[in-house]
Inverse folding.
């Protein structure tokens, strides 16, 4: 028989009770360890999803900028250009629309999509000749006219 003292009080445990206490302690430690491991895995999965979404958003922004540059090139090639176009890439696609606001003023709206991410850009031009002057280049939540 085992003897333990707690606050000067002798406690007597039978050998079966000591084994049960040890088993219960081990089960609790294992349960806590498993819950910590599952929490770490879930945090890792969530982090991966966030990272993937950020990657898609960055690709969509790059594609929107490429589409905007394509629209600017159309204006360089043909000053009176107004119209639309689109580009398709392996990772996503985009479309642009150029409107003539009078004189040398142009407005370009661009929308790109990669997966579930959509990025929109609106560009205002106030001079075309002798070189294009961009008065505003902004990423927007909604395009004008939506």
């Amino acid at each position: 028989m085992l003897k333990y003292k707690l606050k000067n009080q002798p406690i007597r445990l039978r050998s079966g009770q000591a084994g049960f206490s040890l088993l219960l302690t081990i089960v609790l430690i294992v349960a806590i360890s498993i819950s910590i491991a599952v929490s770490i895995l879930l945090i890792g999965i969530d982090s991966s999803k966030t990272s993937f979404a950020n990657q898609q958003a960055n690709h969509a922004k790059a594609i929107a900028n490429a589409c905007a540059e394509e629209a600017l090139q159309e204006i360089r090639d043909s000053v009176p250009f107004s119209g639309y176009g689109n580009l398709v890439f392996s990772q996503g696609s985009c479309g642009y629309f150029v409107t003539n606001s009078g004189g040398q003023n142009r407005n370009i709206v661009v929308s790109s999509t990669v997966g579930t991410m959509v990025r929109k850009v609106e560009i205002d031009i106030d001079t075309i000749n002798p070189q294009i002057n961009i008065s505003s280049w902004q990423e927007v939540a909604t395009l004008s006219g939506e």
About this structure: The mean pLDDT is 86. The longest strand covers residues 117-127.
